[in-house]
Structure formats: C-alpha cells, structure tokens
Task: structure prediction
Amino acid sequence: MRETYGKQLPGTKISDLAGKLIVIEGTDGAGRSTQIDLLKPWLEELGHAVVDTGMTRSPLAGDGIRRAKETNNLGRVTQSLFYATDFVDRLENEIVPALRAGFIVLTDRYIYSLMARAIVRGMDPQWIRSIFRVALKPDAVFYLRLGIDQLVPRVVFTRGFDYWESGMDVYPNCDMYDSFCQYQAALLEEFDRLSAEFNFEMVDASADAKTVCDQLKGKILRLLEADYRESFLAQAAAEMAAVSAPASVAERAGPEWRKASGAGERFRQLAHLSLFPRLTRERVG
Amino acid sequence: MPLVQRYGEHRYPGRLIVVEGIDGSGKSTQLSLLHKWLESKRYGVVFSEWNSSPLVKDTTKLGKKKKMLTPATFSLIHSTDFADRTERNILPLLKAGAVVLCDRYIYTAFARDVARGMDREWVRDLYGFAVKPAIAFYFRVPLETAIHRLNDARDGFKFYEAGLDLGLSEDAEESFRMFQGRILGEYEKMIPEFGLTVVDATLPIEAQQAQVRQIVKSHLQKATELRMQP
Result:
C-alpha cells in the first residue's frame, strides 16, 4: 500500500498509484545520472514505461533556483525551501501522475539529498523532516556510496570546482578545495545516518559503471519480479507457443524467420535474466 | 546549535511589528500611517512587504500567471519568499536595531494555506524559522465590509486571492466570499494561539491609528536599544 511520510497533500489521491518509485541517491560524483541513463533504456527494453526526474527540473521553480544560485547570495533556509518547492511541484505534477499511469519513476536524488544538504547547512533535522512528510515513500532507495577518497578526484578532475558543490556558502573562509572536502565529508556522514533511518540499499559506487549497473539491475529485477512475474510468464509462454507451434515452418524458413518474429529472442532474453525461476525451470531446464 | 528554532524570541535590539487581516481590512493603510509616525519620531524604521523577495518573486509570479500553483506549492513558494526576506532583510535589520514593519507575516500563510486544505501542523512547522514579532496587529473586519471596500477600490478579484484555484464556485465574488470566510475562521483561531492584538477595523481610520500608535508607543518606550535616525 502506497503511503507518505505522514502528511497528505490536499487533492492528491495515492491509493491508486500502480507504478514503482525508484530512487537513486548518492553524493556528487557517485555516478547517479550515468546509472539512470543506463537503466532507463534497459527497463524500456523489458517493456516498462519509464519517467526520469531530478532536482531543479520543475517547470515552476527550476529556473528560479538556477537564477538565485547565480547570485551566490541564496540563504540556507531559503535554499532549503526553494528546493522543497521544486520537489513538491514535480511530486504532484510529474511523479504522482506517472505512478498512477503505471510508469516506473526513476528519480535522480529524492528528499534525502535535500535533507542532507539542509542539515549540513545547520538546519534543524526535525524541521527539514517535517516539510518532507508530504513525500511518497519510495519502493526502493539505492544509495550509490563513494568514499571521500574516490569522490574528490571523480568530481574535481572531471568538472572542476563548483561554488555550491564545494559548499562555499557553508565554509566561506576556506579555499575551494578545503571547502569541498569538508562539505562532501559532512554530506557523506549525513547520508550514512539517513541510510539507516530510511533503509537505503547500499551499492558500492567505486566499481566501474557496468558493475554498478549490473548490481542495480539485479536489485530492480527482484523488486519488479513479484508484480510482473505472472504477466510476463503468460506473455512469454504465448510467444513461445507462437514460435514452437509451426516448428516445421520455422525449420524450413531458416534462421531468418526466427529473427524476424523476434519472439525467440525475447524468450531467451527473459530466460537468461533468470528473472523468472519458475519459467526457466519449467520451460528451459 | 540548530539555526531553526520555532518562532524564536530574538535577542536583537530591533523590534518587529506586523499587521494582519484579510484583503480590504485596511491594514496596509494603518501600517503606512504608523510608518510615517515612527519616522517623524526619528526611529530607524524599515518596511517589508509579503511576497517581495527579489530572488523568489519571479517564480511566484510565474506560478500565479500560469496557474501552476497547487495548495502545497503555493504554500512552499511563499515560505521561500518569506525565508529570503527573513535571512537577508528582517533578521539583519533587527540586529541593527531597526523597527521592522511587516505587511502580512506568518499568520497570513497559516490562514491561507489551511483554508486551501494544507495541514495546520505542517504549515506551522514550515515557518518554524520565523522570529516572533513584538506586536502582531489583527485588523478584524466582517467579510461584507471587506468585499464592499474591495469592490469600490478596483474591478474584479484575483485568481488566487479569491481562492478560484479551489473550485469552490465559478463566480469570482462568491468564491472570494467562501475562501475569505475560511480565512477569517483561521484568524479567529489564531488570536488566542499567537496572542494577536485585535483592532476593530470597522472604526474610523483615525480611531484605529490612535489605538495602534498608543500600543506601539508603550512598547517602544521599553525598548532602549533601538537605533535612532541621525
């Protein structure tokens, strides 16, 4: 049953949200967007409709936040609330409708990043939690964890220092590098705390992108399995029947026919994933 | 030490005075008269208006113009605006020893957002970073008087002010009546909750102002650290 962290949004029904809400969390440089770029087409290939969303992408507040950040004069409370506005705009107008339509929503960061950033900036942890009580509880939170030693070169040697990523508003008396290290270490510490409280599934983000992605795929498949096993089983069985029934025809037509029909490939793909142990046992093994 | 403390009593030398009430209650007129009087008494006095942050107001304007705001985002964007004014304006001014005058304060948000269906506790938590005003005047006026004044002063009711986003009624005036009626109900509950100072806004302007000045005067006499104009 879908629920929020304690407070309902007026006019938003959540009992009929059939889709899955999957959160990819992690600090800067943990490879969140790389993973989402890999996961989205993979899920679509499996037949799932996917929406991806992330911070400051709301039509309401995205541009406003970017403009305010350019001034380097955005206060801590203001910043926390501006991001909360952006989040709720996307929650109500993007995430909830997509879930209602049965989509998988992949979100690059969620309320946890917003909480961590606010807390590191000295906000009362209870205050920031109270605001996000209107958020939906996701189906899974995958936390791409990177130690501070790996995080620094990944961020710094790829895109250089950014004022906000370096937390220069938090440590104004430091140089960019020292500020960056302190800020990111404080964020990591906060993420680790949130991880326990909100049951993050930890993924070691220090490995290469493919290894991380394989881990994520495995976790996502287990999440989806329960819901989709039945429907896929029926579908795959039907596809197999279509391929195997006119076996003689297929033999005579040669491999080209099989390729054109696509059904055999589809089955092998499904079986290979060992997503459906029952299916694999009964039909293949 | 967390920066945010729910409606903290600030220890700064300045004084925060706010006016509250529905549209058409005459609160802005009263505040402007108070402002002139305080200036004539050579107090360092600064005025801060609801919804006026240079960093945030464009976003609010966009949301209103395109009717993108839901009760939740309406609430959040106004709190963002208020936060910016608090951080960059109200708090430093209080620290500098000014008398800060606010046309609308957190009580406006509590009344409007709850009237829009937001959870009462959630909205109060949201504004937990606000500082407590020294005096919060509530200009109490019957709905019909307010509507009469608004109809005289301008044509038509604004979309969000009339609560037209809630679909209470197709008719703007009827919607305004229903929505502002709810707001009045919330204000009444807040009088004891926050110790609002009630002014009868049906009295002549001069009579209200005399009362306001009397209350402000007796308060400021006790505030010895206020910064005066040179």
